[in-house]
Amino acid sequence: MLPPTDQQTPTAALLQAPEAQVLELAIGDMHLLLEQHGYVIALYPSGIRPEHERRLHSIRSVLESDRIALVKVDLPPLGVAVLVRQLRQLSICDFSPGVVASAARLLSHYIYAGALLNSVAKLDRVPVSLKSHARSWVPGSQFAVLAGPEPQLIKVGPAAEPLAGPEFRTHLLVAQGQLQSDWVQETLAPAWKVQAVHETRVPADSPRWWGTGKLVEFAAHLPDLSVLYQLVSSVRRERCHWCQMELIGDRCAFCSAPLSAPENRRPSSGVLQLEAGERSGP
Q1: Per DSSP, which regions of the chain are E strands?
Q2: What is the per-residue DSSP string for 203-230?
Q3: 186 and 127, same structural domain?
Q4: Within the chain, how many helices (H) and strands (E) appear?
């Protein structure tokens, strides 16, 4: 987990893996979180081990709680850490738990998460061509890979085109692994015109996710809470027809029910407000 950006940003609870904690204790910890905070948003990557994901669903099932949101996101480890911190920032705003939970899918599209790798031979989470696989066996080769929001892969070199980056102001978070290279700081950061570069430790799961420990992981993101707040506020809010939680987007983060069809939803007060809300969506 990343450190808070300021004194107001709350910390987060780290849910233990099955081999690190017996089920009874994990259930007790989740029950305590619910008692202390009212709602729990459990954010986890799509690459999580199946037994860990089953543990999360088992805990929610045993507690029979509709106040636990299990939110799976398709981001690499450093991107997930950035997203968790952004949700922590939003949790102190005047958003309901349903809006904060469903904001994860929205904000993930504004996180440019990738890595500089010495090999893509074992990379299976981003499309890699046979030609790139062959090049990865050449000594000294390096590849810049972007996992999201749109997958990209380039072979780093003097004539290489830069990765397509964000068209908005960002900060760049860099986690230096076992690969010794300044390419991210000296080439990528200026190309993306980032406002600031910050360093952090490599997440423990990064080598498994990227297929190698010789990497430099990075994530460009929106750093300001005011911008995050405006972004989430601009999206039309709906009410889940199943659990009545507030949401943004097309699916409830707490019960996974899809948004009901437009003809079954109650119209808002005024056609102009409806059209304005739809135009301001992502």
Answers
A1: 40-45, 68-73, 112-117, 143-148, 152-155, 171-176, 196-200, 215-221, 237-239, 246-248
A2: PTTHHHHHT-SSEEEEEEE---HHHHHH
A3: yes
A4: 10, 10
160, HSE (Cβ side, Cα atoms, 13 Å):
19
Q: What is the pLDDT of residue 274?
A: 34
Same domain (yes/no): 94, 193: no
Q: 3-state class of 131 per DSSP? A: helix
Below-70 pLDDT ranges, the chain: 129-139, 261-282
Taking only the tens place, the pLDDT of each residue in 106-140 is 999 999 999 999 999 899 888 876 556 556 556 67
pLDDT at 105: 95
Structural domain tally of the chain?
A: 2
Q: How far apart are the C-alpha atoms of 262 and 153, rounded to whole Å?
A: 39
What is the rounded CA–CA span in Å between residue 123 and residue 76?
Answer: 12
The Cα-based distances of 254 to 8, 65, 101, 107, 126 in angstroms read 25, 10, 8, 17, 28
